[in-house]
């Protein structure tokens, strides 16, 4: 019976497929032989080519005017005659007014956009939306294009003269910033932040590795019945949620009069208001979101393609590049650098270049229509039946020498009326007729402005061949691997003696200023290292070859002097090589060095005004207020939180050990620490240990990974040259981080103050301080000040505790005797107290304390300590006077690795700190600083580290997979292992 049933099913499937794939034979239309189950799209299904290229291949396999093809199971007609195609889109539009793509207004409102809507619904919506793309509206958009264009110029300036940069990636971010402002009504920052939510959403939408994305794309363009049958929506739930939330929020703001802007959202708001007042059917939020999304997804890709493919072709056509740049220069000079709508439209050769780009790389390389009324093909007996899908292979037509002689040649001149060399009826890169692209003029204007701004200031050189291979899974023509180019500043030739004179004068002034700066220590008679212009003594930091701490360590070893003059770029500083003098500066003579000399600007950058950076009395007052949160009593109160997070850590580690996997223990330790900090300092429960996408974790990661020029500039400004940030008015933190912390702290404080909620954590201490200040008429901490200090413990606490745990595990994995000794101590403690971990139990663990101390010697939390001289200071036993305002650097890493103070410094020896076998200079050990300005949270950090180690070592063994010698990452402040700490984890027996 089973065999009979299977046979029956096989026979039925065979007959059904035979019937489907004989459609064009039955209709008597020339066709290409299909393959089961691909139809004629095998290379598309196998991800060897994109849909556009696949259709182009079908175009080349026939010479018929009309040829039948199969889009998987869907029959369609390929229109190979460019003139007939244009007639279908224009003269006979009434027979082909629909696209035949997926559209389901009721079950999937996001699919019901202007591109997909059929019939009268499309006509009504097109009429409503057309006014947003008039010349007047485009003029209103121009300031936005120019503002974002200026950001693009600044961004390219930083990349000039680098080896190469992916211009497609850069331009796509520029276009998204424009689209965000013009269509979504808010300012994005995709250009400077590749992980901006606005870009991430589109990146996820176009992810070629997502099976569901590929199903959706196939369903929308090839097999609409697939989505209707399965109920799968045209957009992923996160994408739909992202778009609808943004649009609904902005529509509400506009309708309530909170915001007024001349953009697409405002036009939709006006349409809704007009419809409401006249009793017409108004656009729903979902319909508005659907159409805004259309310009998001489609507009971003098409404008990006136009700009970058034009640059790509110009880099392979030096004459065209020179001719266009000449036109750009002449326009800019004629109009004194002003870019207007009319100036752009007056640029003839720019228009020819863009037209030629759109011929070779059309925005959508395939146009589709659906026959809506039976249609007799002119000069033929063929009748196209209602419901038949029509495919117009735009790429195939535009690369056919019948219509465009020498189609492979990039020749803008072919579109010049004086040298016209193409068939005008074969050129329609945005479609033709009533259903052409509504936003084509806006897209062209955006593309032209970007090209003018870039080509006026930069030269672009090709780094890849002209012939492009396209991404196989893409709707538009997307180059595989992007479009890398070399960017160089343009050298424009000016005439006139005044220019030469000015240049010489500027050079002379710079020379004299630099000579004066870099002679500072010579004038003060202090031994010093010879500087390099413009790096001072930290060239390796600027070149991202070493971290700041490692670079200072190398300077330490270039001298044997007690005090050494150095230059931190343009800032003179003194390296204190004598640890006893360093300790005296921090402790006994603190009144002469009570500030750190790092960046702090309370008025313009409140986040910089934290406990670490504040100077003088302001620091003293805040330190006194915050100290109570780190008493023994407070640490005991934190313990239950640490234990709860520790149990989550064990759950995670059990899974890792069961899988016998190699994992990065630095990553796991950082998640444990972050979950602890979230609860203890921020007042909420995070889940970083188990969730890699937890916002608390991902935000910190984004802040620390892929640091760009601006991030490094900020770090330099905070620690090395505070004047840089004050001069540029740049904030000390990325705006994203400031927003993230402010939102959390504002919510926590408001929520607790309104609802009388109390928790024993850092946020509560800040709330209590604010309440007491109000009662005592003192100056209360602002929300920004609260957030700044919470963030200090977020970033600093996370890094130092993570480092202490992971570096300890790293050293123990290379010192089996020490690991065994520590595990034995842990086992004895756990057995003695029946597995209970208390504050007192942890404190009495002597060998654990020795191990942590030795880790902090080899890998101090901050490898350098800095102080600023606040009162002139005569160095004891010396004639040297350190002047007020001088930056003082204490090279903690170097001192702790000097055998003069710590014998065998490379050896990991916890016993050196044991009183019975003491083997170090106590005046040279201060891993958290010393004196009144030492780290306020050192006991809390050590406690977190110790509890993390107890949990881990009580249950698991750790085996190293990397050498004992650690290579540190460059472009960091603290000591960060370059590749983490991958270890093999095993359950302890």
Features:
989 residues; alpha+beta; four-stranded mixed beta sheet; 18 strands; globular
Account of the protein in words:
With 989 residues, this protein is of the alpha+beta class. It has 38 helices and 18 strands. The strands form six sheets. Strands 1-2-7-4 form a four-stranded mixed β-sheet. Strands 10-11-16-13 form a four-stranded mixed β-sheet. A three-stranded antiparallel β-sheet has the order 3-9-8. Helix 8 runs antiparallel to helix 14 (285-315), helix 12 packs across helix 14 (285-315) and helix 33 (783-813) packs across helix 38. The longest helix is centred in the first third of the chain and has 31 residues, at 285-315. The protein is globular and about 105 Å long.
Tell me, rounded to a whole number, the average pLDDT.
85
The overall strand count is: 18
* Rg computed from alpha carbons, rounded to a whole number of angstroms: 34 Å
Shape: globular
Structural class: alpha+beta
Which spans of ≥5 residues are poorly predicted at pLDDT below 50? Answer: none
Helix content: 40-55%
Note the beta-strand portion: 5-15%
Number of helices: 38
State the end-to-end CA separation.
Answer: 56 Å
For the largest sheet, list the strands in their spatial order: 1-2-7-4
Q: The biggest beta sheet, please?
A: 4 strands, mixed
């Amino acid at each position: 019976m089973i065999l009979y049933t299977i046979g029956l099913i096989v026979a039925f499937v065979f007959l059904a497929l035979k019937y489907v794939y004989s459609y064009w034979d039955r209709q008597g239309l020339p066709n290409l032989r299909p393959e089961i189950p691909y139809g004629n799209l095998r290379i598309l299904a196998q991800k060897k080519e994109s849909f556009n290229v696949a259709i182009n291949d079908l175009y080349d396999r026939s010479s018929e005017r009309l040829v039948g093809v199969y889009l998987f199971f869907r029959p369609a007609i390929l229109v190979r005659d460019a003139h007939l195609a244009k007639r279908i889109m224009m003269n006979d539009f009434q027979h082909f007014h629909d696209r035949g793509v997926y559209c389901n207004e009721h079950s999937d409102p996001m699919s019901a956009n202007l591109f997909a809507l059929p019939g009268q619904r499309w006509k009504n919506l097109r009429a409503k939306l057309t006014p947003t793309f008039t010349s007047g509206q485009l003029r209103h958009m121009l300031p936005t294009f120019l503002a974002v264009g200026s950001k693009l110029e600044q961004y390219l300036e930083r990349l000039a003269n680098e080896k190469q940069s992916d211009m497609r990636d850069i331009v796509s971010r520029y276009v998204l910033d424009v689209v965000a402002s013009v269509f979504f009504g808010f300012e994005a920052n995709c250009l400077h932040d590749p992980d901006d939510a606005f870009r991430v959403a589109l990146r996820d939408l176009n992810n070629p590795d997502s099976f569901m994305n590929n199903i959706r794309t196939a369903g929308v363009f090839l097999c609409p019945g697939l989505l209707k049958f399965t109920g799968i929506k045209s957009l992923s739930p996160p994408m739909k949620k992202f778009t609808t939330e943004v649009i609904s929020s902005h529509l509400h703001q506009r309708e309530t009069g909170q915001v007024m802007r001349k953009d697409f959202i405002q036009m939709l708001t006006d349409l809704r208001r007009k419809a409401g007042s006249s009793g017409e059917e108004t656009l729903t939020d979902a319909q508005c979101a659907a159409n805004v999304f259309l310009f998001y997804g489609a507009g971003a890709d098409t404008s990006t393609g136009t700009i970058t493919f034009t640059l790509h072709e110009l880099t392979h056509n030096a004459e065209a590049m020179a001719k266009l740049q000449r036109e750009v220069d002449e326009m800019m000079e004629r109009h004194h650098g002003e870019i207007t709508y009319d100036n752009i439209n007056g640029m003839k050769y720019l228009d020819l270049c863009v037209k030629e780009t759109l011929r070779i790389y059309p925005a959508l390389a395939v146009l589709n229509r659906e026959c809506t009324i039976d249609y007799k093909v002119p000069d033929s007996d063929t009748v196209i039946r209602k419901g038949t899908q029509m495919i117009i292979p735009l790429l195939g037509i535009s690369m056919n020498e019948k219509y465009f002689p020498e189609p492979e040649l990039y020749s803008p001149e072919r579109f010049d009326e004086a040298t016209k060399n193409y068939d005008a009826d074969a050129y329609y890169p945005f479609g033709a007729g009533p259903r052409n692209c509504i936003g084509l003029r806006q897209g062209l204007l955006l593309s032209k402005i970007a090209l003018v701004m870039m080509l006026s200031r930069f030269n672009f050189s090709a780094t890849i061949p002209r012939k492009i291979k396209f991404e196989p899974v893409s709707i538009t023509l997307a180059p595989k691997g992007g479009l890398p180019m070399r960017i160089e500043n343009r050298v424009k030739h000016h005439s006139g003696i005044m220019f030469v004179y000015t240049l010489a004068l500027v050079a002379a002034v710079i020379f004299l200023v630099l000579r004066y700066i870099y002679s500072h220590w010579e004038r003060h008679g202090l031994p010093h290292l010879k500087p390099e212009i413009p790096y001072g003594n930290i060239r390796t930091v600027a070149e991202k070859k070493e971290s700041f701490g490692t670079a200072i360590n190398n300077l330490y070893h270039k001298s044997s002097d007690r005090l050494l003059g150095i230059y931190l770029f343009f800032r003179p500083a003194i390296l204190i090589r004598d640890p006893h003098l360093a300790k005296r500066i921090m402790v006994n003579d603190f009144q002469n060095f009570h500030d750190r000399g790092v960046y702090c600007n309370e008025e313009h950058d409140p986040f910089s005004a934290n406990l670490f950076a504040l100077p003088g009395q302001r620091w003293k007052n805040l330190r006194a207020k915050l100290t109570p949160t780190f008493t023994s009593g407070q640490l005991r109160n934190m313990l239950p939180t640490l234990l709860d997070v520790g149990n989550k850590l064990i759950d995670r580690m059990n899974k890792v050990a069961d899988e016998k996997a190699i994992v990065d223990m630095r990553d796991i330790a950082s998640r444990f620490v972050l979950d602890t900090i979230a609860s203890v300092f921020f007042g909420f429960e995070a889940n970083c240990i188990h969730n890699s996408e937890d916002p608390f974790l991902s935000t910190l990661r984004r802040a620390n990974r892929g640091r760009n020029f601006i991030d490094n500039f900020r770090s330099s400004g905070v620690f090395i040259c505070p004047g840089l940030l004050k001069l540029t008015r740049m904030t000390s933190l990325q705006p994203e981080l400031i927003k993230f912390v402010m939102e959390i702290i504002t919510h926590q404080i408001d929520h607790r103050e309104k609802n009388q909620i109390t928790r024993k954590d850092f946020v509560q201490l800040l709330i209590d301080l604010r309440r007491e200040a109000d009662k005592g008429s003192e100056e209360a901490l602002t929300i920004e000040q609260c957030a700044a200090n919470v963030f200090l413990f977020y970033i600093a606490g996370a890094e130092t505790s993570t480092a202490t745990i992971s570096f300890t595990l790293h050293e123990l994995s290379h010192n089996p005797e020490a690991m065994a000794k520590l595990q034995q101590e842990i086992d004895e403690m756990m057995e003695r107290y029946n597995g209970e971990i208390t504050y007192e139990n942890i404190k009495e663990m002597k060998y654990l304390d020795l191990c942590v101390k030795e880790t902090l010697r080899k890998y101090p939390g901050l490898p350098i300590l800095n102080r600023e001289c606040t009162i002139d200071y005569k160095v004891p036993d010396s004639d040297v006077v350190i002047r007020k305002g001088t930056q003082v650097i204490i090279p903690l890493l170097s001192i702790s690795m000097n055998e003069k103070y710590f014998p065998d410094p490379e050896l990991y020896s916890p016993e050196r700190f044991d009183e019975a076998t003491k083997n170090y200079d106590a005046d040279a050990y201060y891993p958290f600083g010393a004196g009144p300005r030492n780290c306020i949270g050192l006991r809390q950090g050590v406690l977190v580290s110790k509890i993390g180690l107890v949990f881990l070592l009580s249950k698991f063994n750790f085996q190293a997979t990397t050498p004992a010698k650690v290579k540190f990452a460059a472009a960091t402040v603290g000591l960060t292992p370059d590749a983490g700490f991958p270890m093999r984890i095993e359950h302890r027996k």
